[in-house]
Amino acid sequence: MMLSDVMEDYLKVIYQLQRGHEERIKTSEIADELDVTSPTVTSMLEKLEERGLVDREKYRGVTLTDEGETVALEVIRHHRLLEAYLTEHLDYDWAEVHEEADRLEHHISEDFEARVAAALDDPNVDPHGSPIPGADLEPPVSAGESVTEFAEGETVVVEEVADDDPEVLSYLADHGIEPGVELEILEIAPFGMITASAAGHDDPVSLPTDVARHVRVTLPAGTER
Length: 225
What we know:
Helices cover 40% and strands 16% of the residues. By secondary structure, the chain is α+β, with helices and mostly antiparallel strands.
C-alpha cells in the first residue's frame, strides 16, 4: 500500500495519542498535534477510512484499525532507530534528532532499517527513552508513568522524555532531566507547575504540566509507594 508522508504522519500521531487509553481520538486533538485545521483533519481521516486504516465514527472520533496500527508502528520504528543512529554514530544532540528523523523516516528501505538496527545492536529505546517497536511490529510498552502522577517529596527515576520540541529538550537537558537520572519532586503548585531537582544539579527546575506530562518516571529499585 503506497501512502503519502502526510498519511503516515497522521497514523503515527493517532497511535501516539491513543497510547495509554482506549478512547477514540477527537479531530480537534489531531488538529492541535499537527497544527492544522479541523476541516483538514476531517478530509484526511476520510481518505484513511477509505483505505481501511482508521475506524471513524462521526462526532466520536477515530481509532486505528489493525492495518493502520501496523503502518504507524513501522514509521515509529524507523523514526526511533534513526534518532538512535544519529545520536550514537553522527554525534547529534538528543534535542536535534527529532526533525532529522521526521524527514528520513518515510524514505528508508526495510534493508536499510535492518542494517541500522544491527549497527546499533538492536536497541530497545531511543535517545529519549521511548521504546522502539521490534521488527515484528508488536506495540512496545513504555516504562513508568507521567511524573504528574507522583507526589511532593517522592524521588523517581526518569525513564522517558517524550517531548519532541528541541527547545524543551534542551531546557530539560540543561537541568539534568534525562533518562536514568533520579529526580526529587520538591513542590506541586495548585495551578499545576511541578518543581523538581535532578541528581547532580543544584538548581531546581519548574515544569508546566504540559511539559511534565511528557516525562515518564518510575520509583527507584526497591522503593514502594
